[in-house]
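Give me structure tokens for this 342-residue protein.
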Amino acid sequence: MYGEDAWKYCFLAYSGRSGSTLLCREIDETFPDVLVVPEFRALEHLAVAGSTDGFLSVAGMNRLLRQDLQLAEEPQVLTTILRQLDDVNSERLGFTDAVDLIVGERVRRSGRSVRIVLLQFGSLPAHRAWLRSQLGDRWAGDLVIVRDPRAVTNSLLRTQRAYHPREDMGRSDPGFCARRWKRQQAAVLRLVTGQMGSPPLVVRFEDFLANSDSAVSPLTGLLGPINRHAAQVVRGFSIPAKERPLHPNLLSPPLVERGTAWREELDPRAQIIVEEETREVAQELGYVIPPSTISRRWMTRWARASSARRQGLYAFRRLWHHRKQFGRIADHLKARQMSWRP
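Here you go.
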């Protein structure tokens, strides 16, 4: 769609509360040749939908774009993208054309020469091979940011959800946080160890907090030269207003003490549960975990049983919360004279 001289794409793999937003802000302010676009949820939906046959329907893409939270806050950008989508002659789009359509308006509005577009893509390990096959020569490389599972759990348990303020992001369950981190980072570990092709560049959140300059300097081979003054002319990175309370320290310098705050803030029992659940993966990523003991293992077994009860109650609350939506679906099916059994 944009020819051979178009920009290339770099993907950032991350897990929730791992510091990806802070890293994106730093890259946006440091590398003038890189445009860090917002976290478009539509892009991951496009990858899931397109991975079946490599194409996307224009109607389906129109729906995904209208549902994207970031684009909803940029009506002019959304209007321009939808107008370009209406001009597409074919009824189906390839993934590269679809991404170019979303990102192209951002690149044009930046007013500068963009060599690489950085996309946050949490599900990169699941779709990496397919994405590389779709982008071909326009694949620049990968970045991965990792963080201590105890720090991630502490952050999840202390951060309220943006769309359900009465709940924390960790569901008040350190076992749930630990298992989610383990599942996500096990996939990232396959990337880092080269089991899925060439390994990506890895940034440790703790090293980034200690010295951001030394942490991002190894990225110059992928993202180009560092020039903070030039990069600050036009900033492309932003987050939706609804999610800004999740990042209260985003506009302030990195707080070094946040790297080890979990030592004082995380409950000792929760710390043991997280360490027992994530030991193997965390050690592979370079984090020091105390050795296992019988008491630790028994505490973890008890926590798993307690966690199962908590997650059952959580699922019930979610169903109760969405009961009106289920009722609307039932009414819709009855209106169309379709049989439906709850």
